[in-house]
Amino acid sequence: MIRFVLFLVIGTVIIATLTLLMENLAWIENMPSYFYQTLFFVPFTTLVIFAYLFKVSKPDVFVPLYLLTMVVKLLAYGAYVFFIILDDKSGSAGNVVFFLVLYGFFTALEIGFLYRKISSGPSE
């Protein structure tokens, strides 16, 4: 669990640094208007879901619970993106792209760590 949190923090710092660097190098026109909110929201929800799923030790309970968390996560993220688009129509493309990059990265991180735990068997 501690390794996951460490990777989560390092990943967040790297993505934030790269985004700021891309703005300074003028690779992107301007920062997403929801940069800090998204940078907090996506890793935090990933951590909460991972912590909840990490405690589950029975595979027959894990799969339905994982699928349920994915549905809830997609609905919550969809609502978040919807309100971002409503609030900042002109900057919605940058906000959505930034959100999707974070979503893809942190979901892959979560799946990787959960796969290692589940595939290692009930000994952990």
Residues in β-strands, percent: under 5%
Structural class, by secondary structure, is mainly alpha
Report the major sheet: none
Q: How much is the radius of gyration in Å?
A: 16 Å
Shape: flat
| Total strands | 0
| Number of helices, where a helix is a run of at least 4 consecutive DSSP H or I residues | 4
Helix and strand sequence: HHHH
- Low-pLDDT ranges: none
Estimate percent helicity. Answer: over 70%
Walkthrough of the structure:
- By secondary structure, the chain is an all-alpha fold.
- The chain contains four helices and no strands.
- The model has no long low-confidence stretch (mean pLDDT 91).
Give short descriptive properties of this protein.
4 helices, mainly alpha, 124 residues
What's this, in brief?
With 124 residues, the protein is an all-alpha fold. The chain has helices at residues 2-24, 35-54, 59-87, 92-119. The longest helix has 29 residues, at 59-87.
Question: Secondary-structure blueprint of this entry?
Answer:
Elements: H1 2-24, H2 35-54, H3 59-87, H4 92-119
Helix pairs in contact: 1-4, 2-3, 2-4, 3-4
